[in-house]
Structure prediction request, 108 residues.
Amino acid sequence: MSNEIEIDLKKFGGPVYTGREKGQAIREKNNLDKIDQDPTSNVIILVPDNAFSLNSSFFLGLLGKSIRAAGSREKFLAKFQFKNPSHIEEYIDSGIERALLERTNLLS
Prediction:
């Protein structure tokens, strides 16, 4: 049985989402460290239509640990789905790449 959690970013400001601390605060509020460990949990991140950008520091504060815990883009996207305007896709893609790169650099 799957446990689905929704995180609606419009509850946390916008239209520009910036700051690692803000991302980390949303992460903590939604218990993402615990969710990362639960194979039955899936997360839907709702990005409002009026969002202008997701700054990489915000994105990594919110999801960097989850991406590194998943270990790959595919595994991360199997657990975390995004409902977002199309122009936000580039921020999501680059955030995932950066988190995986940080993981590689930390291991070397």
